[in-house]
From TrEMBL:
This is PSP1 C-terminal domain-containing protein. Residues 268-421 are annotated as: Disordered. It comes from Lignipirellula cremea. The lineage of its organism: Bacteria, Pseudomonadati, Planctomycetota, Planctomycetia, Pirellulales. Pfam families: PSP1. PROSITE patterns: PSP1_C. It comes from the Bacteria. Residues 62-147 form the PSP1 C-terminal domain. GO terms for cellular component: cytoplasm. Residues 279-294, 309-337, 394-404 have a biased composition (Basic and acidic residues). InterPro entries: PSP1-like (IPR047767), PSP1_C (IPR007557).
Amino acid sequence: MAKYIVRYGSMRHLGVLSTRGNDRFRRGSQVIARTQRGLEAGEVLCDATEEAVSQLSDTSPGQILREMTEQDTNEQAHLLAHTPKTLAACREHIKRLGLDMQLVDVEHLFGGERIVVYYLAEHRVDFRELVRSLASEFQTRIEMRQIGVRDEAKLLADYGDCGKPVCCNTHLSAMPPVSMKMAKVQKATLDPTKISGRCGRLKCCLRYEYDTYEALLKQLPPVGSDVVTADGRARVLSQEILAEQLLVSTEDNRRMLINASDVLSVLKRGSGKGKPRSRGPERGRNENRDKPPQEETQGAAQEKPPQGDSREKPPRGEKRNGPPRGDKRGGAPRGDKQGGPANDDQRDGTESKAGPEAQDGPVVKDTSAPTEGLQENPGRPEGNGGPPLSPSPEKIEGPEKNNETESQGGPPESTDSKDQE
């Protein structure tokens, strides 16, 4: 009993089907076969040899009943004529039920015992009510099958960009996975509009020659490798995989295209990622390496902006030479609210506005020598025009009332002004 590989159905299923008795069929014969789905029309592809069956991943059993007659051909044409009417009825029921699905196609089996509905949906759809409505209208069994965008092209697409019928609708039995790496290895354009098929995904034909490219690529030195040729040492810049040629750059910066067989040895294998740097920048980088490191450090120090305080910190136990920070009890270095004016203009007796008290009352010029009370205040040392030293809390004398007056901001009244009153 002979066996044949037969293609049948709208999704172009493949099956290993046996024959009745000693029946023989030639390649391309249109037959009527019984499969797991029912009675269907199919096409004989070839004999089911061991080599042919080993290349098929998923096959279904069945039996070839007979070769199609003229009556069978008319019956199949009659079923195809009812397809638009069935599609319109399905769309009406889907719209009435408000189902989130996209109807793609319907398929009538040859025996009429089943109608297969193909649809697209992002999520799972509860179509039980739809099946009941369609079954009562067409009086047959309804099968709902969810498919992807590539299967949609397999059902509806006709011709590809190459001008030939799409591969998924002719000879492909399964959809092979295709990645962008395959396009990069074959140096195809990365424009999505040019490498995408009718389904909107990457073209299936990108995978056909990928294995050949991978085998040839392993025999070529990667990009960036240092090789030795008959003309001397060179570096690989790019590869012509199918032609098995290399674009190299010699030591005198000459670029030439050589055959892969002209490579005598590989000194250093490159990573193969991106284009290697040219010889020019490498020489400039070597010249910079000859400079002393001190000059580079000085240049970096000049370009680097100063950050923070660059003053040296005195060691512990040693007083600072600069002015001390302000002290509420002993007087602040700015404005010198306790011992009179701190700037040179106020020290010479000129008028200055120290606050609202100076604006309301008359300005009193103190030309006399400092009193004893002021001399006892160690906030300003005698004979020193610099900023006052911060007194220690132990040497501060006087009632608390004077301290409150000093902290509010007005300059204290001198002893001579009280005698004048």
